[in-house]
Amino acid sequence: MSVLPVAGRAQVRRAAWSLVRADRRSAAGTIGLNALAAVAGLGGPWLLGRIIDTVTGGTGETGRIDLLAAGVLACAAAQVLFARHGVRLGHRMGERAAARIREGLLDRALAMPAAVVERVPPGDLAARGTTDVDTVATALRDILPEIFMGVVQIAFLVAAVMLIDPLLGLVALLGFGGIGVVTRWYLRRARDAYLSEGAADSAVAEEIGATTAGARTVEALCLQERRLAAGRAAIAVNRASRLRTLALRTRFFPGVEFSYSVPVAAVLLVGGMRYFHGEITLGALGAILLYLRQLVGPLDTILIWIEQVQRSAAAFARIEGLAAVPAPGRPCPAPPRDDRIEVRGARYAYPGGPDVLHGIDLTVRPGERLALVGLSGAGKSTLGRLLAGIDRPHAGTVTVGGVPVGDLPPETLRRQVVLVTQEHHVFRETLRENLMSPAPDGELRKALATVGADWAGDLDADLGEHPPDGGQAQQLALARVLLADPHTVILDEATALLDPSTARTAERALGAVLTDRTVIAIAHRLQTAHDADRVAVMDAGRIVEIGAHDDLLRRDGPYAALWRTWHGS
Amino acid sequence: MAGVAGVADVRGPVVFLRWLAARQKRLIATAGFFGSAWMAGLTVMPHLLSQAIDRGLAAHRPGTLAWWAGAVLGLGAASAGLGIMRHRSMTKIRLQVALRVADLIIAHATRLGAALPRSVAAGEVVTIGIGDVWRVGRAFMAVGPGVGSLCGYAVVAVLVWRISPMLAAVVLAGVPTVILAVTPLLRRLQATGQRYRERQGDLASRLVDTLAGLRVLSGLGGKQAHADRFRRESAGLRDEGYRVAEATSWLGALTRGLPGVFLAVVTWLAARSAAAGGITVGELVAVYAYTAILTVPVFLLVESGAEMMRGVVAARRVTAFLGLPAPDPSGVSGPPAAATLHDPESGVSVPPRTLAALATARTADARAVLDRLSRFGATDATWGGIRVDAVAADDLRPRVLMADDDAAVFAGALREVIAGRADADEPAVRRAVWAAAAGDVGAGDLSAGVERDGRNLSGGQRQRVRLARALYADPEVLLATEPTSAVDAHTEAAIAQRLAQARAGRATLVATSSPVLLDRADVVHYLVDGRVAASGTHRRLLADEPGYRDLVTRTAGEPA
């Protein structure tokens, strides 16, 4: 299994920027509204200063005080309204971006070439599509608007302090320097710690899932104590990982909180000296102190979320990693001349592994039934995948009608060769959509009837709500093949998992599907071989024998030996 | 489980939360103390600032100013210390509660046994076990920040009272007003949030479904239809998200902004009072500063309330699961020595020291017989004349083992997977591995890791590991369904021979359609419509029973 790539920093930055650009107007609107909210927030303390001046002026103008106080009230109300609309706009923008990301992920997954699809660990792709997408969506929707508002507020507060007294502003900024140091220390360690916390959560989920899904086995084998112990071990790991992140926060939070009081004390001292020298008024100094106190709120918001932003950046990098999967980039070959499949000197190795097929030569005659037999691990399924054009040999050729099978575009390929395995994925969709064919309803019904799917009445029945059983799923898979109408069908243990009575129905259905087609059947049981026109026996990545069943028995080679073992004599 | 969790009181969500709280008394007291002390510290900061201004700056005394600046730093340090102690104690409460509940859930899941899948889906238990447990944990936010906020609210009220009782009355009335104003929003947000999460879950399973079927899609086409449908549903989720944005943006802005509006009102009243000479200018500034601090407790109180609401909902799901009745494990003892298992409904008997086989065209019928014999579900089966449903679980289960062909495989080292509940005895494990012809699993290394459900094994390997595990348990009676359906002919022959050897002197019943296994059995029961139609050796049945011959030869590939 190869692993899906993860996007690099530059790629992540480009992708993030293109998300912002796609929603330029909302982005500008969010900035504007947050800025207005921040300005309104600055108004309160400033107006309070004017009230103090009025009161100390001793004029006792109640009207003026009322006016100023009404101003304070108006500022507060304006801040609520601006902030609300700013957050709303940001949230909506995040929601749109999240939708773009998940839709893009599916588009890219759908565009992956078949060979990559076969090789990708399904869990990895699903995790990127669910957990990672959710993490990024939460960040975009809930966290980033908040952080954004915080940044704008901070910018305005700092600007206000700088306007009043640049020197004291500088002192304050230096005083906040400690936060930078503590935050860097924390972020360097936080990511791994929180990742292992997440892994510990998944481990608990795994244990609970395994125990509940396997409840019957637990009871049958008296595994209660073992399962409880395994669950408790996972819980203990979980506790330890959470205590580790707590230990990190135990240094980070107090460091930050103490850092808030440093600039206040520094401004008091330095500002005090300047006041004693008559370089600043008491009112100005008071306003700066109030602004510094106001900085605490937005700073807190940012620092609380910063780790999660980091985490969602990592999740985003995993999602964007799909963009780095090589595109199919197939040449556009001429259409196949005829239906003849030929394998010449084909060698194949899984990535990073040794050859598992060593120079296969095989000609499949149109219309024949060819059985591929051999022990597990002989390379039967691998050869089947080369024949189906899913993988390509690294040496030699696999061609249909003179054209390399692996080069055929999917639309052409599925008219030539289709591989049927035990895995019959049934989508949680209607029956019609599960047949995956644009054919009219009449033809769909005919296909279902041909495979004996008498259970399938309503084409609009939701198979997600009423999932078909194994035999029905098999019939569905065969109906799909029928509708795709290839000239060659490869069956890889297609009926092995069914019980005898179902298998019999399935075989009848199969018979109907296979009429007038070339069939390559892969089987470890020999009944299939008996009925075939020719049998190819594989061993250790080679075809060691090929011929009709009776001829091979007479030849008394490996096939005859296999046949005898199977019969237990 | 009694040692760790005690017997939980699961009569209802609130009772359950109270039961959990009673197990955390000291931590809760600690959290309440630090929550209150930290909040009190917050209210002192404006006092220090006003003192620094009045006594240091206004009085032109650099020494005093330095002293108060030092006090600001000192209070900052103290507040940081109190804050982190509050956070630590709260985190520990959440952790203790959540993991204690997770422990209860796992313990109950093991007690429920085979009854579990009938009552609740596995996915749902996982959701409870990793999601709801933390929501229950967070419900305890009220005991730290919640209590602290009430305390801070009280301190501010007292401080303002000393300046002006009239203003204090306004402050006292204001906070509950603000909280009452946001509560309906909170409820609305929870409702829309719930709908959003459901749709999000649906969309995620749609995505997983499509990804799982990628192979089919690239083989047979239909990608565009899937892409289009996903896009439509994704747009639906986005629109639902817009509705959440309406509620959440109001809630956020009001929780933080309403105290500001309230502050403006208090300032107005205070300013008029100051203008009339009722309070001094210093007091005006102090009232402003104190009231401004109330933003923090208001925010925390609203959050605590929300967490409590969510926690009760989660606790309801937890108690519903913990309240599922577990089967009663008690009962009479089984037969003192090896005895015959008999299923009257089908007529199948498994006498001691016999390798019996069950052949039928309908696997489901064979399963039903084995389920009755091993008491999975309702049964009239007897064991040495004793009804199996009367026998105590801890006597029946170790002696009569049901080995399903789709039995779960749990993660662990190969040796532990095979040893099951017992400690791994190396030679015995090797014997079991040999008998199941599973020597190729993990390349023969018993320390090799097996993933959950044997995901890192091939289908045939998984099946042989299950068989090895059943053989290692060495039960008096072994009931197995299709133990060789996924292995090749050569291996199947080896298993058939070794199985007979490994089970010599013990009772075994295998439901199978494999001629090799059937040929090894002392007796084969041929089942038609769930009842024994004929019994005898494989060869005799082949000769005498046309139906049996049809069934077996189809599988063997001989002309029918």
**H/I helix tally of chain A:** 19
CATH architecture of the largest domain in chain A: 3-Layer(aba) Sandwich
CATH class categorisation of the largest domain in chain B: Mainly Alpha
Give me the CATH superfamily of the largest domain in chain A: P-loop containing nucleotide triphosphate hydrolases
Structural class of chain A: alpha/beta
Q: Architecture of the largest domain in chain B in CATH?
A: Up-down Bundle
Radius of gyration of chain B: 35 Å
Question: Based on the structure, what is the oligomeric state of the protein chains?
Answer: heterodimer
Helix and strand arrangement:
The complex is a heterodimer of chains A (569) and B (560).
Chain A: H1 9-22, H2 24-56, H3 62-111, H4 114-119, H5 122-164, H6 166-175, H7 177-213, H8 215-220, H9 224-276, H10 282-321, E1 341-349, E2 355-364, E3 369-373, H11 380-387, E4 395-400, E5 403-404, H12 410-416, E6 417-420, H13 431-434, H14 441-450, H15 470-484, E7 488-492, H16 500-514, E8 518-522, H17 527-531, E9 534-539, E10 542-547, H18 549-555, H19 558-566
Parallel strand pairs in A: 3-8, 3-9, 6-7, 7-8
Antiparallel strand pairs in A: 1-2, 1-4, 4-5, 9-10
Chain B: H1 2-5, H2 13-22, H3 25-57, H4 62-112, H5 116-119, H6 122-138, H7 145-163, H8 165-212, H9 214-220, H10 223-275, H11 281-293, H12 295-322, E1 341-343, E2 348-350, E3 355-360, H13 363-373, E4 382-383, E5 386-387, H14 393-399, E6 400-403, E7 412-413, H15 414-419, H16 426-435, E8 449-450, H17 459-473, E9 477-481, H18 489-502, E10 507-511, H19 515-520, E11 523-528, E12 531-536, H20 538-544, H21 546-556
Parallel strand pairs in B: 3-10, 3-11, 6-9, 9-10
Antiparallel strand pairs in B: 1-2, 1-4, 4-5, 7-8, 11-12
Helix pairs in contact in B: 2-12, 3-4, 3-7, 3-11, 4-6, 6-12, 7-8, 7-11, 7-12, 8-10, 8-12, 10-11, 10-12, 16-17, 16-18, 20-21
